[in-house]
Amino acid sequence: MYSFNYVFTIIISSGFVVWLSKVFPLVILKKYKLNEKTVSFLSFVPITIMSALWFESLFVQHLGQLPSLNIENLVASVPTILSAILTRSLLVIVVVGIISLAFIRVIGI
Amino acid sequence: MDDQLTRKRAIIETMPTVLGYVGIGITVGIVGRASGLTVLEVLLMSMITYGGSVQFVIISMIIKHSELLPIILATFLVNARMILISMSVAPYLEKESVFKNILLGSLLTDETYVLSMNKINYTKKRLNFEWLNISNLIAYFTWAIASLTGALIGDYVGTPQKFGLDFALVAMFIGLLYLQIISEREIKMMLQLLVVLFTLLAIYIGLIFIPANILILLVTILGCFFGVIMKNVFF
After folding, report:
1. Do B41 and A4 touch (CB under 8 A)?
2. How do the domains of chain B map onto residue ranges?
3. Is A47 close to B174, i.e. CB distance below 8 A?
4. Which residue ranges traverse the bilayer (chain B) (predicted)?
5. Which of residues 89-108 of A touch B (CB under 8 A)?
């Protein structure tokens, strides 16, 4: 157990930092227009963020050495991608993903 | 998805993504309890900090009785991608009032952001307060209830990993990435695939010497630069 004050101070200050990084750009950009180059740059944010979050889950980090493969997540990605191509339904994709990983853990790949 | 930006469509279109973070929310609750936080502290962290992965980082630093400043710095670095996300969504919310922008920004997450970027491919690049706000609210309360549930049941169940729930979020990103690539019309598909490939390479190399939490931000910036350069040179 930690003192409530210690934890609560952390919650409030980290919350403020998170809040500021989300709200500040929105408020500022209401005043200033982004130039064309920046808009073009930002148009790549969705695919890079999604790819980065996915690919990061496919590896296990060993700082100072090459990362190793996270076999479970890599194998579970295959039926997930297939279900995306076949159904284009987010619900189906997520459910297939969950079942795939649970199945892989049960049979122990 | 369709071109309607109504509350009803927001509910229907956000529901599938909820599965993606219920598992992580429960996990944050269980991990928080196991690390010595009270149920109230777990809930407050989810409702006030509301940072997803950053909450795991904060909890791991609380265990080490870290000072406040390093925690704030880590929070900023892990969450700095939200600055990019917020900048990227800003042009679509320009016509909404400052107050509504603040409200939308406060509850914006990776998940509702990528969902809205998918949505605009069907709405001729339009987005509005009603749709995004409902999507945000669903995500917010799901997260709060899931972490509360995790904190309450944490003493009785082990890790939720054995149910495969930890892959839900990854599956959601795979799905949204695929849907984004096939529906995005401004950027050629070949260029998008190149950027995805570049991201894979950058993640692999980056993992050698940069902690994964911060690497996401760096790779996002690099990936966008790569995309812009390729677009100007070859496309």
Report:
1. yes
2. 7-185, 187-235
3. no
4. 12-31, 37-59, 71-92, 137-157, 163-179, 191-210
5. 89-91, 93-105
